[in-house]
Amino acid sequence: MILERFKVTNKIAIVTGGTRGIGLAIAHALGAAGAKLVVTSRTDKFGGLESLQKANLDVSFYEGDMHDKSVPQKIINFVIEKYGRVDILVNNAGVAQHGDMEEYNDELLDKIMNINVDSVFRMCRSVLTPMKKQGGGVILNIGSISGLVSNIPQPQVAYNASKAAVHMLTKSLASDYADQNIRVNALAPGYFRTEMTKLPKEHEHWYPIWNEMTPLNRMGETEEIGTAALFLCSPASSYITGEVLVIDGGYTSR
Ligand code: NDP
């Protein structure tokens, strides 16, 4: 009975950036718990779609660039046309770019804010109408510990600010739409092993620094975030909304 609450059988779930890394692990977790998946990204060059299909999951792919302001609404339209509803929206697509502020040009700033904040705002805005109409839903935004603390040694002011915005967007939306039975939460991951955290040779010495600052003394594996996402997207967390769940091996406990 209790385990039933972790199931999302036949729920329609969108995972943006669901073709690799953290998004792919979240898609696997939701799919294994019974959801019908729509994953989105610009490409599927790491074979994520195939891995979901090989796991016998019900999955569709929507190819779109979040830089294009019209894409979030198009994704929702695609899903509504196909299934008539959206039960779960995971806003995971994101980008990181290190750099000292003095050298951080407008193009980089726009890129970070467009993908990490504006597209999350637009996805949420577009999904609210169908979720209200159908009587509720769940939104999970992927923030970061970088929205809570300033990571070192890498300089990443813009990224940190973008993730803090995701956390506040989450809390505000949760408060505003709780009466519509729409729950909104965020995950704040620490360091996870993905394409995003693959460092060039000259920065490889950051890895031991990251591990040393993490009480569990290692980076997270993406499966470890999939299960946390499933918890927040399933009825197991039915009384949780407006929460930013930190999953960082203890990094922010120090
Ligand atoms: P990856 O770089 O491995 O994956 C990012 C995903 O987002 C890809 O599927 C990518 O697909 C998609 N994406 C990127 N840009 C766009 C775009 N313009 N339009 C549409 N889709 C896009 O990153 P992670 O899996 O590591 O990160 C996932 C989320 O987790 C991000 O929001 C990140 O900020 C956050 N996070 C990651 C941490 C980590 O340690 N890895 C720590 C804390 C937070 P494609 O490029 O094909 O479009």
Poorly predicted runs = none
CATH superfamily membership: NAD(P)-binding Rossmann-like Domain
Determine the mean pLDDT. 98
CATH topology: Rossmann fold
Q: Return the domain count.
A: 1
Radius of gyration: 17 Å
**Share of β-strand residues:** 5-15%
CATH-derived architecture: 3-Layer(aba) Sandwich
**SSE run:** EHEHEHEHEHEHHE
User: Can you list the ligands bound to this structure?
Assistant: NADPH dihydro-nicotinamide-adenine-dinucleotide phosphate
Spatial strand arrangement across the major sheet: 3-2-1-4-5-6-7
Q: In total, how many beta strands? A: 7
Spatial separation of the terminal alpha carbons: 37 Å
Shape: globular
Structural category: alpha/beta
Tally of separate helices = 7
CATH class: Alpha Beta
Percent in helix: 25-40%
Write up what this structure looks like.
By secondary structure, this protein is of the alpha/beta class. 39% of the residues lie in helices and 15% in strands. The protein has seven helices and seven strands; from the N terminus they run βαβαβαβαβαβααβ. Strands 3-2-1-4-5-6-7 form a seven-stranded parallel sheet, with helices on both faces. Helix 1 (21-32) links the parallel strand 1 and strand 2. The longest helix has 29 residues, at 106-134. The chain is globular and about 50 Å long. It starts with 11 loop residues before the first strand and ends in a 7-residue tail after the last strand. It binds NADPH dihydro-nicotinamide-adenine-dinucleotide phosphate. Residues 17, 19-23, 41-43, 65-67, 92-96, 115, 142, 144, 189, 191-192, 194-197 line the site of NADPH dihydro-nicotinamide-adenine-dinucleotide phosphate.
